[in-house]
Design brief:
single chain; 551 residues; Rossmann fold; eight-stranded mixed β-sheet; disordered N terminus
Length: 551
């Protein structure tokens, strides 16, 4: 069963390590990974292994000084400054077990000052010593200082150690931060030694032993290091000796099982459950964001084509001789009458009569389609942003999912540019009826002058042609035929231009829909990076259950 459990535990560790996590989640996952790896490490230990003995205590209690005293050399840095030791310093005569402390191992600079440790690695101080042949000493940071990262390293060292030496002083033996470690050492069956450094009286040593018993420690062994300037000396059997540190690893099935239970419980509480809650919130937001997929855009480019239709109509002979222009002239008659004297005077002087243009074409600017489409995408992004921020778990996440709104404007620019090119081509071309009629008039005597009459007063020409058809031959038939032909031409031109405008509208809508879908997919992809997928989390939950069931 032990082999099976170890295999399951190793598999769980690999699964947790493979989870895609955001930076904010990596710190908690890293601690849990180390705890699980420590539990797996202790399952491989036996009574014959050289024990890893860690010194644990508060700030300023002299852990590093005791290590140097026991080794008989300055192997780890000491200082009157508090929170001086920053990371694990292992004093050994050979290599440490692979993966110990779940940190890389580096050798200390033997030519430099004694190391004070680094939080992200284990510094090795190698020495040939009779004591180090039987154990490895590990100096650790404080558990009660102002640096949380120091406390995290000390906690890591405690969970990986085979045996623990708790170090206190008369000023700090009542510190509450050590109480949980006393309890855990008993829970895991870890061999431990209690040392009061800088002791100066029997009373304080006895009070410390009484405090340990009240904390649930049975028959605590307290060793003493007297203050250097103290006149008090403890009994010889209470003095700390190097051989007191030789503690056999606590390899008990109950202790190993408790380590596995505690590590998996921390994995479930500190990693899995927060990720499940986050994934549930993300899935809800993803559903709301996906609902925006039907978002459409309503753009009408017909205003761009109205000028073309007017232009093509005005250049059509059938319009010039047709009833629509007569109606247009009739509507403008009041203004024309006002300017009639001036027109008559110009006719008298130059022999050319031209009806005054009293209604110049309106020059209304078409809508800014680029801005319309850009704002539509920005509106979609704003709605997605609102949905994300409504979730308390996602409100503070830095979003990286928004596409450049200029991509939407580029759609309008591209399609409108193609429409304008088509319009310009039609703008500069004569309508078919005009081109055909002009060819016909070239072979008719006086055709050029007839064209001027069409422009000047087509309704007068029509009347004269009807009254005196012999003057202009069969031109009156052509004129009168224009009344019906113009209606046909107008409808045809309108249909052609309208169809091209609808084509542009459809192209803009379809391209925008693809861009909106791309934006939604980008938002969903970003949301999915904030937590592992539900399938991965379910696999972790199942692995946790298997490890606990088989521990």
């Amino acid at each position: 069963m032990a082999t099976r459990t170890s295999s399951e535990l190793d598999s769980l560790i690999r699964r947790l390590a493979a989870l895609p996590l955001a930076d904010a989640q990596k710190a908690a996952a890293g601690r849990v990974h180390s705890d699980l790896a420590a539990a797996a490490f202790h399952r491989t230990r036996s009574g014959g292994d050289k024990p890893i003995v860690a010194l644990v205590g508060g700030t300023g209690v002299g852990k590093s000084s005791i290590v140097n005293r026991l080794i008989g050399a300055d192997v780890t840095a000491t200082s009157f400054r508090r929170t001086f030791t920053a990371g694990p310093v292992a004093i050994t005569n050979d290599d440490l077990p692979a993966g110990l402390f779940d940190l890389p191992h580096v050798d200390a600079d033997v030519a430099g000052e004694p190391p004070r440790g680094q939080a992200d690695r284990v510094v090795l101080v190698r020495r040939s010593d009779a004591l180090l042949a039987r154990l490895t000493l590990v100096d650790s940071p404080d558990v009660d200082g102002e640096r949380p990262d120091h406390h995290a390293v000390a906690d890591r060292i405690f969970r990986w150690a085979d045996a623990v030496i708790f170090v206190v002083t008369p000023e700090k033996y009542q510190m509450t931060e050590l109480q949980p470690y006393y309890r855990l050492a008993g829970r895991y069956g870890i061999p431990k030694l209690y040392v009061m450094n800088k002791a100066d009286s029997t009373a304080v040593v006895d009070d410390y032993a009484a405090l340990l018993r009240r904390s649930g420690v049975l028959d605590p062994t307290v060793r003493v290091v007297p203050r250097d300037d103290s006149t008090w000396q403890p009994p010889a059997d209470q003095l700390l000796r190097p051989e007191d540190l030789i503690l056999s690893p606590g390899v008990t099935p109950t202790g190993q099982k408790q380590r596995v239970f505690d590590a998996t419980a921390r994995a479930a509480d500190q990693v899995l459950q927060p990720l499940l809650d986050l994934r549930q919130a993300i899935d809800g937001v993803v559903g709301s964001v996906r609902a925006f997929a039907g978002d459409a855009i309503d753009v009408d480019v017909h205003p761009l084509t109205q000028q073309l239709q007017h232009r093509m109509r005005d250049r059509s002979v059938l319009y010039l001789i047709g009833p629509q222009r007569i109606l247009d002239r009739v509507r403008s008659m009041p203004g024309a009458l006002v300017r009639l004297p001036r027109s008559v005077w110009d006719w008298t002087r130059g022999g050319e009569f031209k009806m005054p243009d009293t209604q110049p074409p309106a020059r209304n600017e078409p809508p800014d389609f680029k801005t319309i489409v850009t704002e539509q995408l920005q509106s979609l992004q704003s709605r997605i942003d609102d949905v994300v921020k409504q979730s308390p778990q996602l409100a503070e996440k830095a979003s990286t999912w928004k596409l450049d709104a200029g991509l939407a404007g580029a759609i309008a620019e591209d399609e409108v540019a193609q429409l304008r090119q088509w319009l310009e081509t039609r703008w500069n071309a004569n309508p078919r009826d005009t081109a055909l009629l002009m060819k016909l008039l070239r072979v008719v005597p006086g055709g050029a002058k007839i064209t001027k009459y069409f422009e000047a007063a087509p309704y007068l020409l029509a009347i004269s042609c009807v009254a005196t058809s012999h003057m202009l031959g069969h031109i009156d038939v052509l004129v009168l035929g224009g009344y019906s032909a113009f209606t046909w031409l107008t409808e045809k031109l309108s249909n052609e231009v309208g169809a091209r405008a609808r084509q542009t509208n459809t192209a803009i809508a379809m391209r925008y829909e693809k861009l909106a879908t791309r934006q939604i997919d980008a938002a969903v992809a970003w949301l999915d990076t904030l937590a592992p997928l539900r399938r991965q989390l379910d696999e972790i939950a199942s692995a946790l259950d298997r490890v606990r069931a088989e521990a």
